[in-house]
Amino acid sequence: MSASRSAIALALLLCGSAAADDRPAAGLKAAKVKPTPGCSGTVSGPAKGAFACRIDVRVRGDGSMRVFLAPARVPRGLRALLPGELEVPAPAQPGVYDLSRLTSARVLLTDARHRTFVAEAVKAKAGRPASRRGEVELRIDAVRAAEGAPVGGHPGSAAALSGSLRARLVAADGKGRDAVVDVKF
What we know:
mainly beta; disordered N terminus; globular
């Protein structure tokens, strides 16, 4: 996926244009995100910054989970930041998931000089080859039902996670140093 298509995907995600069962919680626009307690992250490398974040987890009908991480505010010095859009395969359970185990993953940032950095993996689908750039490691320490609903109870049900994410993002143009995004939730 090109850098411009990635930026468009980021904008659509943050504006809540995802499919109904994958939609982030209301209000996930970049400037108005209410942080989830205990969710914070840092960016290091050519771009630097710290941020509070919100995590939104949706359990799909097949038991897989869609995980969305959004910054409460984009850190100064960055133009855009998507700390994580991931799909964990069923059964979603505690453990370490890298790009080879995740169904899909995307971490994206654009710095003040409009350089885009990305880590992503998309599995091959009919007519589309698989793509993989950078590295992502999602560590899930615990999966809990949110608000008393059983995890996996119905499509779109909410879940709560604790753990961390570390991503090494490569420059979309292939030039320069890698950026690193670390998030704890």
